[in-house]
Amino acid sequence: MASTPAPASAARAVLRTEARLFAREPAALFWVMVSPTVLLVILGLIPSMREVSAGLGGRRAIDLYVPVAVLFALIMAGLQAMPPVLAGYRERGILRRMSATPVRPAALLTAQFVLHAVAALLSALLVTAVGRTAFGVALPAHLPGHLVALVLATAGGLALGATVCAVSRTQKAATAVGTAVFFPTMFTAGVWVPVQAMPDTLRRIVEYTPYGAASRALDEAARGGWPGPVALGVMVLWTAVLAGTAVRRFRWE
Fold first, then answer.
1. I need a labelling partner for 214 at 20 to 30 A (CA). Which of 30, 152, 156, 226 fits?
2. Half-sphere exposure of 35 toward its Cβ, with a 13 Å CA cutoff?
3. How far apart, in whole angstroms, are the C-alpha atoms of residue 229 and residue 162?
């Protein structure tokens, strides 16, 4: 009689399979891993973006857009790439059928979270490297604080994506809901106007959103300080609320 695969071995097999499938999706790879760097390069080629501005505290606009591009990668992974995949698995009955096998559906969900988190973090590394080499953007002055902020931002982005999947019954619905949430998060992440350049009242409001708080935390780390407790607390709170909502609302079929 064949032995039942250990849960850990089964989870690793699912992760390898999902990684191969993810690598065969050029659109997802481009939007998550390449498009943030493309955005940064396009902006960096504009001369005014490379000029020092007194209104930005003696920094250049391109300096602010490196963390913006990092957050853009998280948005693409959490809202555009992951929810349609998970909703599609549920809609086609894959998660339900997995419930009757030694490989639990949670292994597939975990694999998706890991893959999209890794893709977003690799994209962040690429953005940082290109910003440094092509445009002379300084590396984060407080690296531990920057890493903490980046990990929390990644967790919050994936929790938001999981919530979108949880409230969407079909793959098309997940795409529609993800797109509807996509544009407000783009604004709060500072894609159109960096959060640091927003009027004071608007900036204070935006910094209480998941990506606005992430932008503040990354900026504080970039300038050499440990991210403030308000920004970190807002990120932790949003992650907990979104993750809790996703767990309560998610259905395997």
1. 30
2. 18
3. 26
Q: Which domain holds residue 130?
A: 7-249
User: Is 92 a residue whose pLDDT tops 80?
Assistant: yes
- Give me the residues paired with residue 59 across strands: 53
Cβ contact 190:215 at 8 Å: yes
- Return d(Cα 203, Cα 188) in angstroms, integer: 9
Residue-level pLDDT at 161:
94
User: What amino acid is encoded at 185 in this protein?
Assistant: T
For residue 3, is pLDDT > 70? Answer: no
How many structural domains does the chain have? 1
What's the token pair of residue 159?
């929790």
Strand partners, 52: 60
Q: At what angle do helices 61-75 and 35-44 cross, to 10 degrees?
A: 160
Q: pLDDT confidence of 249, banded at 50, 70, 90?
A: confident
1 belongs to a structural domain: no
Q: Closest by alpha carbon to 191, among 207, 211, 209, 217?
A: 211
| Any domain includes 46 | yes
